Amino acid sequence: MADPRQSTSSQNAPAPIALTCGEPAGVGPELAMRAAERLEGRVPFFWIGDPRHLPSGARITEIAAPKDAVHVPTGTLPVLRHDFPALATAGTPNHANAQGVIDVITRAVGLVRQGLAGGVTTAPINKRVLKDGADFAYPGHTEFLAHLGGVERVVMMLACPALRVVPTTIHIALKDVPDAFTPDLLDDTIRITARDLKRYWGLSNPRIAVAGLNPHAGEGGAMGHEEDDWMRTLIEGLRREGYAIKGPMPPDTMFHEQARAGYDVAICAYHDQALIPIKTLDFAGGVNVTLGLPFIRTSPDHGTAFDIAGQGKADPTSLVAALDMAWDMARATPPAQGAS
């Protein structure tokens, strides 16, 4: 049987995807091994981390360079060694390893920007552990990646086969959403989303549906005024520019099957408005994609799961989907200079 990775050996193929180790005491290490087994070489990727943090008996091959990942036996995890100061105990994070987690993310981004990796898929981190152990100065993964990419504004998109959603405001209290949800933020979110859907998904003019902030999209001011005060004007202006955009739409009628067939992405006002529908439709298979970066970044849509780490209960579906998506995105763009 032909090796499914043979097509990746072409000089025109992207470099392998870099998978960061994430929190060593979480489910990341065991999911990396299970993803390699499930993918069976379909997606060329390599794991950056300390081999000691992988499950006992894991089938690994240490590699000297990212390009070597395509030559390891199918089902084996290619490992680009990154030594940490301490061992890892599943479910019990060690602050001594916090800086190593940060350094692995930085290293992965550097490899992509050199053209040695086709994109980054990040395993989950624990922000409190990083803050307490290494004075991590960022609210989360995404903000740190934006810093590494030299950009001020990025967009979080959650994607599965049935739906793509973008929350315009993300990890803030619901009471703070109306002040944070501004015309400038919504405009930037729509433009970044449309640009990257064209770039990575080949949609010449993505169909965009914008959810209202308020119930029933305000119902003419009876339930809120943002829609009439500025949202309709902003959306109409984008439509005149040529965007295939509609809204503001009543959020409660946007996500049934017939409605979803009418758009490629839903732009939502706040976190739960976007994440509840996608997690209802595909809880295990959703992928977190960061749009607006100068490199590809995906991640599984779950956390470190300390409570089940090391017990063999963690589901690799979302990580497999994240690696698949990163690879598809990389294949949609020209190879970076320096890739070999």
Strand line-up of the largest beta sheet: 3-4-2-1-5-12-11-6-7-10-8-9
Tell me the series of helices and strands, N- to C-terminal.
EHEEEHEHHEEHHEHEHEHEEH
Indicate the CATH class of the largest domain: Alpha Beta
> Termini distance?
26 Å
Number of strands: 12
Q: Could you characterize what this model shows?
A:
Helix 2 (98-113) packs across helix 3 (127-134). The longest helix is centred in the middle third of the chain and has 19 residues, at 183-201. The chain has two domains: 1-155 and 292-340, Isopropylmalate Dehydrogenase (3-Layer(aba) Sandwich); 162-281, Isopropylmalate Dehydrogenase (3-Layer(aba) Sandwich). Strand 11 (287-291) and strand 12 (297-300) form a beta hairpin. It is α/β, with parallel strands linked by helices and 340 residues long. The protein is globular. It has helices at 28-39, 98-113, 127-134, 141-149, 177-180, 183-201, 226-241, 257-260, 271-281, 317-331; strands at residues 17-20, 45-49, 60-62, 77-81, 119-121, 155-160, 163-167, 207-211, 244-249, 265-268, 287-291, 297-300. 49% of the residues are buried. The protein is built from ten helices and twelve strands. A twelve-stranded mixed β-sheet has the order 3-4-2-1-5-12-11-6-7-10-8-9, with helices on both faces. Mean pLDDT is 92; it is low at 1-10 and 336-340.
